[in-house]
Amino acid sequence: MNKTHKHIIQLSKKELAHLQSIIRRGKHNARVATRARILLLSHKGKSKNATAAELEINPSTVQDVRNRYRENLDRALYDAPRPGQPPKITDRGEAHLIALATSAPPEGTARWTLEMLKERMIEDRKVKKITTVALWKRLQRRHIKPWREKNVVYSEHD
After folding, report:
1. Which segments in the chain show pLDDT lower than 50?
2. Is residue 113 left, alpha or beta, with left meaning phi > 0 and alpha meaning psi from -120 to 50?
3. For residue 88, what are the contacts with CB-CB under 8 A and spacing of at least 6?
4. HEC states along 122-142?
5. Secondary element (H or E) of residue 148
6. Contact call for residues 151 and 145 (beta carbons, < 8 A)
7. Do the Cβ atoms of 59 and 104 come closer than 8 Å?
8. What is the SS3 assignment for 32?
9. pLDDT at position 139
10. What is residue 3's predicted lDDT score, i.e. its pLDDT?
11. Residue 67, Cα to own-chain centre: how many angstroms?
12. DSSP assignment of 74-89, as one string?
């Protein structure tokens, strides 16, 4: 008995048409086009190694795409969403930052600097560590520039 197991992919007519449009139109990124080619060659009965050799990719990539196809076609073609890095600052921390940036600067200084805000946020234990760029982006979203001018925050309910 032969122990080599061929992973057979049987695509529907609709799936075949969709995959062929992906590789013909060029509107998709190279990774998606390669995955479409893997599925098309697998549908034709090509082995994992033959498919990998033809596309000049690693055989494990072929196997991964085939395995994801078991879930569904979109899963085989596209990467799953990634969670990304957690926010550096919470909503409560951002509120504290805004309150600081719009308050009077420390004695002996004319205005808040990003470095001073960073040190104060760490000192007040609102963040463990943060870059001045991350603080700047939060302030920029709200059009607050403590290093340029006196800021006043008005309530939206007034």
Report:
1. 1-4, 158
2. beta
3. 127, 130, 131, 134
4. HHCCCCCCCCHHHHHHHHHHC
5. none
6. yes
7. no
8. helix
9. 92
10. 45
11. 23
12. HHHHSPPP---PPPSS
